[in-house]
Amino acid sequence: MVYADCVSKSFGSNEVLKSISLEVKRGEVMCLVGPSGSGKSTFLRCINHLEALSAGRLSVDGELVGYREANGRLYELHPKEASKQRRDIGMVFQRFNLFPHMTALENVMEAPIRVKGQRRSDVEKRARELLARVGLAERADYYPAHLSGGQQQRVAIARALAMDPKLMLFDEPTSALDPELVGEVLDVMKELAKSGMTMIVVTHEMGFAREVADTLVFMDGGVVVESGNPREVLTNPQHNRTKAFLSKVL
Length: 250
Ligand code: ADP
Ligand code: MG
Hints:
Structural class: alpha/beta
Shape: globular
Organism: Luethyella okanaganae
Order of helices and strands: EEEHEEEHEHHHEHEHEEHH
Bound molecules: adenosine-5'-diphosphate, magnesium ion
Distance between the termini: 30 Å
Protein name: Amino acid ABC transporter ATP-binding protein
Keywords: ATP-binding, Nucleotide-binding, Transport
InterPro entries: AAA+_ATPase, ABC_ATPase_HisP-typ, ABC_transporter-like_ATP-bd, ABC_transporter-like_CS, MetN_ABC_transporter-like, P-loop_NTPase
Number of helices: 9
Family: Belongs to the ABC transporter superfamily.
């Protein structure tokens, strides 16, 4: 589903991703961990066409996102194709980014109506199902300001799912939440993983990674330091940088 081959990304002289090679198969969950500034968000942004690669090759579901040859020539999807592919990729951020002037239900209905032009009655039925799936059937008519952070983040997940994505990217989805609200969001993500969704999750929740991830990737300074089965990486890290990081977050 996601194939990154020697992907690099620089901002000016700052090389943020240094030849990242990763693969996420359909239905798999990859957790991406690492210190702040290690390039995790940038990697997600490359997958989602929000940043152009500086080198390497990246594809999603067999379709090229970008490819830059050694001579510097860049191949990218036509912008129309790129925005089509972006519709198939759901993204959930640390900050919930809900539209404040819309109810939970309207937030979930917005993209399928505006972007896909689907019928309002069909979209509403599906949006209510999705809100029920994230445990918020009773909150459909609430505005974001009247929902807790955990509820807002669950609406954000339902909103992403409304576009029927084939891949979900999560960038520290629980980092801005009060500790007692983290579990309800992780539970929704666990259910999503069980349903077979392909997911890349940037998180510091090692319990989630251990339980749900097929692969745990530890990044530091723009490189993949190590990756593997989460239980193995967590109980028997091979690199000192991984050990040092884990000792801080576990
Ligand atoms: P992480 O998500 O692991 O904390 P980021 O991918 O956000 O790391 O950032 C990695 C590095 O890239 C940081 O040094 C950050 O300052 C830099 N960076 C990220 N986005 C930009 C940008 N748009 N312009 C310049 N530098 C950026
Ligand atoms: Mg980040």
